[in-house]
Structure prediction request, 386 residues.
Amino acid sequence: MIQWKTLSKKVILQGNQFLTVENHTVELPDGRIIPDWPWIITPDFVNIVAITGEEQFLCFRQTKYAIQGTSLAPVGGYMESGENPLEAAKRELLEETGYEADTWTALGSFPVDANRGAGVGHFFLAQGAYRVAEPNSDDLEEQTLLLLSRKELEDAIAASEFKILPWAAGILLALHFLEKGNERSFENSSRLI
Amino acid sequence: MIQWKTLSKKVILQGNQFLTVENHTVELPDGRIIPDWPWIITPDFVNIVAITGEEQFLCFRQTKYAIQGTSLAPVGGYMESGENPLEAAKRELLEETGYEADTWTALGSFPVDANRGAGVGHFFLAQGAYRVAEPNSDDLEEQTLLLLSRKELEDAIAASEFKILPWAAGILLALHFLEKGNERSFENSSRLI
Prediction:
């Protein structure tokens, strides 16, 4: 199959560090030209499903601007300039919870929007997490750290209590890995970091 | 916990039907004001994991502008004006594959971006799918319809072959429902449509 070709790009909205919008002129495989294809540039981010040695999942109960009420959430945040995804994941876990972890597994990296980009989410499982410090988060939202059992986590996913798409995806990636990782290709050497 | 308050909104980019950007002035619970909070308006969309009576999963191999090469994808697309999510899901399944389905289950609706909105994804499982027509899709991308076994689907998820975040999320929601639905709260009357 043939990729679409980007003929030109132009910034049409230079917002703050959280958003830039470009207009792309795109050529389809059959030669047709689309002159007004919006392309969204937002920061890449990490989501971390962290599990203590006692099989407790570190989650937050928090508010977010895009939802009414509160939601459960995994640890996560935007990558900072110069960081790779694993560095960002370790920083966010430490800042937000005061935990470090023994074993890190990459669960995949996914563009958010098939048509317009909108950043890439990098997902990690952190096993053997243990507390080393007080949390030191600069997040603007109120949040409360919770320790959930695996059954509580599965029930929460089933009840849509993780209300934001990347958060639900991160939890489901981790659960799928924990259930299938040992028998299927999830677990290969390139994924264990 | 206290929600953030939207003090004012202003359109700062009126693109085509696929993108509008607003600037929101937001008040935090502690009284601080953020004057430049970008808010992204993109169309809501549906993703459908459709399974035939022979336990085959309907998927596409396709190109998309945001990825290199090809990706596996579930059925899906933007909602049209005046449609509810289930109507959009049934339309997309019929247009893209020529299939209808006996049993529809809502797997959840999730805003894409916790901070900026960027549309809501509505996810469905369609069981007992059967062919009634030729596909009649107006999608711009090349795509090939595939029928995958459950093991092939699980292996594809584990190998990150569903490369876009909502696509991976949709497949994982469906697999979690199929594994846990009968024992846990996924399966309650409000979810079966």
